[in-house]
Amino acid sequence: MYPASSSGLENSFWEICGGDHDLTMNSNKLVDRVLNGFWILLGIGICVESIRMKLWSPAGPGSGFIPFLAGLLIGMIGFVLFLSDRAKDSEQGETEKFWENPIARNRVFYLLASLCFMAVLMQKLGFLLTSVLTTIFMIRVIEPRRWTTLILVSVVSCLSIFFLFKSLMQINLPKGFLGF
Amino acid sequence: MDILHHLQLGFGVCLTPINLFYCFIGCLVGTLVGVLPGIGPLAALSLLLPVTFKIPATASIIMLSGIFYGAMYGGSTTSILINIPGEAASVVTCLDGYQMARQGRAGPALGIAAFGSFIAGTFSTIGLNFFSPILVVAALKFGPPEYFSVMTLGFVVSIFMVGGSMLKAFLMIALGLFVSTVGMDIINGMERFAFGSSNLAGGFDLVAVIMGMFGVSEVFLSMEEIFKREIFSKIKGIFPTAKDWVASAVPILRGSVVGFLIGILPGGTPVTASFVSYAIERRSSRHPEKFGKGAIEGVAGPEAANNSAVAGSMIPLLSLGLPCNGVTALMMGALIIHGVQPGPTLMSQHPDIFWGVIASLYIGNVMLLILNLPLIGMWVQFLRIPYWALFPIILLLCIIGTFSANLNIFDVWVMIAFGVLAYLLRKRNYELGPFILALILGPMFEQALRQALVMSHRDPMIFLARPISGSLLGISLLLLVLFCISVWRKGKKAQLFEAPKE
Q1: 3-state secondary structure (DSSP) of residue B38
Q2: For residue range B186-200, what is the model confidence (pLDDT) as tens digits?
Q3: pLDDT per residue over B474-498, tens digit each?
Q4: For the CA atoms of chain A, what is the radius of gyration?
Q5: Residues from chain A contacting residue B419 (CB–CB below 8 Å)
Q6: Is residue B92 within 8 Å of B304, Cβ to Cβ?
Q7: A27: phi then psi, degrees, rounded to nearest 5
Q8: DSSP-based three-state secondary structure for B143
Q9: Which of A13, A164, B132, B454 has its CA at a distance of 20 to 30 angstroms from the CA of residue B112?
Q10: Cβ–Cβ contacts within 10 Å for residue B212, how many?
Q11: What residues of chain B, 94 to 123, have a C-beta less than 8 Å from chain A?
């Protein structure tokens, strides 16, 4: 039984998380559960890999000793947090939203997309060109300004940074096919 | 007399034109990053780290420490004038500083913050001056078991200091320890959690992780706020009145002591120092109801404490070679790149660096007082830069800082990944301080543990049998037990799980 508005993706999250009626894609409860689940899985994964690396050697603790302890703690605390959140959920009915408004959510996704864009294209197009394009995009989608203001601010700020780090501090920045 | 003689050497080193120049640059950049919200001292240090490769070791460390304490001075300006902390240690200054500004008392608030910072900075430098040599003598007796126990105490202290969920802080320490183990095993060279990737074989780059966790996540969080701000730019009467001084004298003194002591502790940061100082001032005040409504004590105490903690946190770095926060970890990195190993032998092998840095703190504090009071109008102009124009610059600086460390695009991906993770964690009340501490100390912690067990032929009693190590572990255990008892008695079981909402 899922809310009528639930998407397929949302439904799959519901199934993973036990199917509470007050869970939505935008709830803190869901994020907590996903995080707690992640801690448990991460802990198990670390422990398994650590055992493979050997916990103990003739000289003393092996390569896997500290990671194993860390993994054990992560998994155990994740499990305790999972249980405590479940107990809390049964006491509290209301659901707090992870993002108070959709604008905030969209801004975060736009920023993330911009950073990924930079990481993918920085070495192909060069730092200067990629940074100007990314800055224009970021300002345009996050806090729209007039195109002239937008382009002027982006070009001036990127050129200043480029000049400061490349020319003054002599830091190597990706050049790209255009040579800058 | 010996200390005075050494200090004379330090001033001789620091007053050379090149070191004086880099001290000024550090103070200037520090104040700027403190004033601009979104760029903290950590990000600034990461950005300038590649620059330090080309300048002498003493000048590098003098400049980097100038950025650290300069940011503490600058952060208060933003908190007082626009109610946004310039950096994390100035969060509590917003509470009363901004209220003072709204009441037309921005000048005295800025004045007392600067004078308080100067007094506390000088006080803690004197403390550093006298305590470091004593600690160096004690540290020469330290072996792997003692180092392991000091770091354990640091982890326990960091759990207490988060003020939120202890379990989540514990989890953050475990996560930090795990992340620190990714890459090559320092003892036998075995690859761990690299899964055949040459990028992961060297481990996660510290700068990339720090930039992501503090720089990128900060910008993500700021996306949820309204960008428009009100700036109180009419500043008059910057010198506090006699009444202000009477009200602030004891909080400044208390803040100086508290900040210094917290700074010395592994895991103690200027952020914690300012929060603890504010809590003490409110509790000890005859008029606690005035706090949050423009009480000058609420500005004087925390501002003194965060500055005092800076010099305090230099003690474990210079004396023990233990960086107890991200900033000192980067300073240590800068020194190691120059072939200088911080620790008990630093004072004897590189007295110019050891005493030069201490002398630079005295000089830097005077520079910052001049930069922050007569030039306050200049810093206010920086606050006029709208955030929509500022955040892309912050992100670009994060990318440059991360990329330039190893010229590897993989580090940028690591920065993005840790930025997203930190954003989620911060929104769900996980504290990043314990994570960073464990990440920094992780390799040393593991090395100390394994070396100690090799020394003792795998007998764990070595940690308890040696007096210093045993005492430190005893204190750690006692702290944990006392805290658990007090939480249980007060019926605050929730504190174990839940971070306070404020």
Answers
A1: coil
A2: 888 889 999 888 899
A3: 999 998 888 778 767 765 555 555 5
A4: 24
A5: 115
A6: no
A7: -105, 150
A8: coil
A9: B132
A10: 27
A11: none
Ramachandran angles phi, psi of B195, nearest 5°: 50, 40
Q: Residue A27 forms beta bridges with which residues?
A: A97
| pLDDT of A79 higher than 80 | yes
Query: Alpha-carbon distance B140 to B153, whole Å?
Result: 19
Q: CA A35 to CA A38: how far, in whole Å?
A: 5
Convert the pLDDT of each residue in A131-143 to its tens digit. 999 999 999 998 8
pLDDT in tens, B81-115: 888 777 778 888 888 998 898 888 888 999 999 99
Q: What is the 3-state secondary structure (H, E, C) of B52-119?
A: HCCCCHHHHHHHHHHHHHHHHHHHHHHHHHHCCCCCHHHHHHHHHHHHHHHCCCHHHHHHHHHHHHHH
Is residue B42 one of the residues assigned to a domain?
Answer: yes
Nearest-Å Rg of the Cα atoms of chain B is 22
Q: Which of B171, B412, B458 sits opposite A39 (nearest CB)?
A: B171
- CA–CA distances in Å: residue B222 to residues A132, A137, B360: 22, 18, 35
| Nearest-by-Cβ selection for B392 from A127, A157, A165 | A157
Calpha distance B82→B105 (Å, rounded): 13
Q: Which of B170, B224, B454 sits opposite A100 (nearest CB)?
A: B224
Residue B502 lies in a domain: no
Provide the chain B residues 162-201 that lie in CB contact (below 8 A) with chain A: 167-168, 170-171, 173-175, 177-178, 181, 185, 187-188, 190, 192-193
Number of domains in chain B: 1
* Chain A residues closer than 8 Å to B397 by CB: 161
Question: Which amino acid makes up residue A31?
Answer: V
**Nearest-by-CA chain A residue for B445:** A66
pLDDT at B253: 94
Other C-beta atoms lying within 10 Å of the C-beta of residue A1:
5
